[in-house]
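hi!! sorry for the late reply, been swamped w classes. u asked for the two structures so here they r. pasted raw, havent cleaned anything up. first the sequence of the first protein and right below it the tokens
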Amino acid sequence: MIVTLDAKRRLTVPEGLSPALPGDTFDARFDADANELVFRRIAGAGDWLAVLSQCPVSMGDLPSRRREPASRRRF
């Protein structure tokens, strides 16, 4: 499929070509050897709770925080 650059230097991708949604983020690179533009979709933020559940270390195994304030150095 051929897409054309408009006067504002934008490319419009037909809806049937990619299941992208407005607001999706892409990484664009120019390959000088092949003389082509390469677009790769960057994964969205995702669900932070799902990422936390995949963490190999449980929250109980983390070292505790210091409760006392940091002491001041004397020079």
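now the second protein. again sequence first, tokens right under
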Amino acid sequence: MVENDRVRLIDASTAYRTAAGWAYGFPELTRNQRHVIKAARYVSNPGCYPTGFISLVRPLTDAGILPKSWPLSVNAVSGYSGGGRKMIEEFEDQGSPNFTQAPYRIYALSLAHKHVPEMKMHGGLEHPPIFEPSVGRYAQGMIVEVPLPLYALPSVPKLRHLHAVLTAAYAGERFVEVAGLEEAASITTLAPESLNGTNSMKLYVFGSDKLQQARLVAVLDNLGKGASGAAVQNLNLMLGLEETAGLVERFDWSTAPGKSLDAAAS
């Protein structure tokens, strides 16, 4: 439909996320991805689930710690806004024939979810991961998890090795933060809404060296870094603006009138 060489596009659908000629709009994907986006005529905005998954997996496949042929699974929960208008109506519109009061449900039971090709390609994988999405009865915010049996990986890595790779991959990034191992070890629960209203994503390495198991976790706002926030970030890059223009890096709930982090998360 675009017949001139002046118009540049950011597409928010799934149509071009694995298509030739389209730049993938995750600036933190590799050290060169920002330059790719800046120069591109066509940019495909990432999906929210893939953003969390790829952020955890791609550095490990690039580093060779995670074999590209590894049989990965990804477990995730999102607020119902991630399902678009139809799902929002199901949870909010009591007049809808599909209205539900379910607190939680899993879906995409056939495993043929539209995000899987994107996860495979940009995660640097040879096989599609087993994707296990779910939705909770809250509007927005998400947690994406990738479990790893460390004892089965070729190098039998420790938690610190995984953490070091992720930390190096996102060093200096404004919108992606890797929690320290001590911070992760001190956490007993994690709320999917903790970064709502921001374009930030926080990554965690949980697990046990004794059990030789790891639980990699990404927390983000599915409407922020997982959608419109990422689109604005890409737009800024394409226009040569400050990358953070118009974006919230991290909302400080402590300064919000009458709010607290616990209240916000509830």
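hope this helps!! also noticed smth abt the second:
Residues 47-223+253-265 form a domain with the Dihydrodipicolinate Reductase; domain 2 fold (CATH 3.30.360.10).
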